[in-house]
């Protein structure tokens, strides 16, 4: 069940950009939280799904509660709610980010096993040819993981491991997180203010 009312129908010309954000149980839930914060600042309408293990992981890794994270989104759904609006291809949406994306979720998306709302919504992104970005979090990678990544890429998704950029000279983990989130949002044509970008070597 949604924690808010179903958004009213609007025209493509008048509605805000909409992005689905899904958090799974992989480590790195702070990336999903910062994605929600960045999208709120950009006035993007967000539709959030938290898996059962994402709820446990975020409480272990951060000071956020599940209620805190749900409050960052415009709409939030149970991962068991396969009747949610975002489970249908008729729902207008501009894309989806699974951040972080566990290897279990990656595998489900690759084979089209839409047992829960995260996998179903991702399957809808692929069939409707919407942008789907999977911020996959695992290390090291087995051949099973790599084959699933290749599979979803062939299906049209973008695999985005959260690899830090050191040319920005991050002062700490917060800088790394912000840069990764900014680069993910680049894939949706969204500009995060102040995001450091490579401009070539500075010559003396």
From TrEMBL:
GO MF, one annotated term: flavin prenyltransferase activity
Keyword terms: Flavoprotein, FMN, Membrane, Mitochondrion, Prenyltransferase, Transferase, Transmembrane, Transmembrane helix
Compartments where located: Mitochondrion
Keyword Transmembrane listed: yes
UniProt xrefs under Pfam families: Flavoprotein
Binding positions for dimethylallyl phosphate per the UniProt entry: 167, 183
Catalytic activity: dimethylallyl phosphate + FMNH2 = prenylated FMNH2 + phosphate
UniProt xrefs under InterPro entries: Flavin_trans-like, Flavoprotein, UbiX-like
Keyword field contains Transferase: yes
CC terms in the record's Gene Ontology section: mitochondrion
Domain annotation Flavoprotein: ranges: 17-187
Residues reported to bind FMN: 25-27, 51, 102-105, 137
Transmembrane segments: 20-42
EC code(s) of this entry: 2.5.1.129
Oligomeric form and interacting partners: Oligomer.
PANTHER family: FLAVIN PRENYLTRANSFERASE, FLAVIN PRENYLTRANSFERASE PAD1, MITOCHONDRIAL
NCBIfam families: PRK06029.1, ubiX_pad
Record-stated family: Belongs to the UbiX/PAD1 family.
Function: Flavin prenyltransferase that catalyzes the synthesis of the prenylated FMN cofactor (prenyl-FMN) for the ferulic acid decarboxylase FDC1. The prenyltransferase is metal-independent and links a dimethylallyl moiety from dimethylallyl monophosphate (DMAP) to the flavin N5 and C6 atoms of FMN.
Identification of the protein by name: Flavin prenyltransferase PAD1, mitochondrial
């Amino acid at each position: 069940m949604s924690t808010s009312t179903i958004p009213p129908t609007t025209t493509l010309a008048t509605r805000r950009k909409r992005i689905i954000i899904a958090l799974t149980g992989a480590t790195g839930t702070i990336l999903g939280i910062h994605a929600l914060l960045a999208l709120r600042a950009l006035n993007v309408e967000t539709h959030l799904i938290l898996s059962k293990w994402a709820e446990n992981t975020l409480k272990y890794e951060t000071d956020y509660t599940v209620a805190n994270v749900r409050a960052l989104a415009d709409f939030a759904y149970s991962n068991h709610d396969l009747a949610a609006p975002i489970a249908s291809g008729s729902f207008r949406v501009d894309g989806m980010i699974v951040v972080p994306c566990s290897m279990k979720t990656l595998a489900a998306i690759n084979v089209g096993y839409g047992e829960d709302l995260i996998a179903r919504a991702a399957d809808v992104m692929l069939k409707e040819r919407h942008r789907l970005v999977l911020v996959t979090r695992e290390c090291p990678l087995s051949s099973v993981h790599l084959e699933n990544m290749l599979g979803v890429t062939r299906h049209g998704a973008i695999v985005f491991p959260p690899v830090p950029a050191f040319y920005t000279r991050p002062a700490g983990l917060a800088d790394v997180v912000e840069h990764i989130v900014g680069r993910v949002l680049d894939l949706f044509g969204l500009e995060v203010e102040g995001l450091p970008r490579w401009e070539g070597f500075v010559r003396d």
